[in-house]
Amino acid sequence: MSVVSVRHAAVAYGGRTVLRDVSLKVGAGQVVAVLGANGSGKSTLIRAILGLVPLADGEIELFGTPQRRFREWARVGYVPQRMGAGSGVPATVGEVVSSGRLARRGIFRFPGAADRAAVRAALDDVGLLERIDDPVSTLSGGQQQRTLIARALAGRPDLLVLDEPTAGVDVASQEAFAKALAGFVERGGTVLLVAHELGPLEPLIDRAVVVHHGLIAYEGAVPQPAGHHAGPHHDHVHPHATPEQPRICVAPTDRMPAN
Amino acid sequence: MSLFQYDFMLRALAGALVIGLAAPALGIYLVQRRLSLIGDGIGHVALTGVGVGLLLQQSPVLTAVIVAVVGAVGVELVRERGRTSGDLALALLFYGGIAGGVVLVGLSHDSANANLTQYLFGSLITTTRQDLTVIAILGAAVLVAMLALRPALFAVCHDEEYARVSGLPVRTLNLVIAATTAVTVTIAMRTVGLLLVSALMVVPVAAAQQITRGFRSTMAVAMGIGLTAAATGVWVAGEADTAPGATIVILAIAAFLAVTVGGATWRVLRRHIPAERPAENGEPPDVVLQEAGAR
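YS: structure for the whole thing
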């Protein structure tokens, strides 16, 4: 049984087709990377899988259940691209990670010992346990990203879905991130992640799927850098300019500004 | 303290305390999702409810609750769609609400102008025993909902998409916040008035977050500030013969200024004494504030 199964999915925003006829299967224990240029539709694909974007056509199943009828959301851990812009009301790292327990616990119960232990374990996995009582606003971008993966891990999910988890993240955080993900995979977890480039995550990836113009353009082993992207003088320019090592890059024929 | 021998002063105090506690407990969620002014808008809508009540010779508080809840749910449904026209829809609703209220109150039998002022700016000392019962029951309901659902409401206000993927009933929780806002606005109508109610939801939270580190501590400190401002406000208003609602709001804003200046001073001082860093002591600024509030 596939953990994620997408059949002939199509998504359109206000009449503009973003995905057309995409099919994808992720088996239990697999680590699948969805690659593609900005604007290729790769983020839309995982947002559709999570039910955040309605399908125009096709069908999606999670753990063998049609997504519409899927209720075991505690089995899915979602790591968004970044933490929402702060509103000014402070929240500690521990409070944010505790939200990850809600799917398991239900909304009417207050956190118990098991919840607190899971939160601490998840923060330990990403190397942020000592920051548990600090306001998230005092963390670096990379540490905030690690907080979000800890939030997803705290729910003890079977499937992790990550949307560009390492975009604009410092190298130390990328490595802590890769370590946490490796631990999750070792425990039998399934991973579906969207990336612009893989960096230290690359050794973990079983299979890569390249989305291009709303279609799956390639599926197989992680493609190696080709053409001028592989050259030593390739200047990899990103909207979120941070030092990062270009490892693989899909030719950006339709590069759009990040939005 | 001699003023509090009078029953009406005791009722005024009790009503103010309930609002002082309930309004910030709800307000923190509104501030967190950047809807600080929504309480003001719902207050405008509630005025139509007051007009309906006076016209039909029913309890204005009851009709205001009903109309405000309908209005708040409408606002939430518009917000959920995320349309660019949402802003305009809100403006229509709010100004329609206040204009409708003024017209309906004018049409009603006891259309004295004082009547309108009483709802716009509060009229704490005319709180009857029956009013107080309604305020206490609804206020307790608001408090219980806001405290019991805190983890879920925090998750929804902090990251709505994540909450949705967690399988939380996001829409229901949003409607709970909307309906609770309407109820809080209506019961605060007697204390601070429809035009000032938003201040009691937002200002204590704004003050608390200057010095707190987490959501839970912000909520606790904001409720403490709200309670203190309400109690002190009723007392000062009684002694100085000022409008209670406005006095409470001015005291809350004074607390905000004091905390902001105090917090900034504390940070400067701490920077100059690097030897003794109270890093492991949890949240020292909260303690300072609670002592100040208790005085």
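YS: worth flagging: The interface with chain A takes residues 28, 31-34, 148-149, 151-152, 154-155, 158-159, 161-169, 173, 205-206, 209, 212-218, 282 of chain B (CB under 8 Å).
IM: good catch. Also Confidence is low (pLDDT under 50) at residues 276-295 of chain B.
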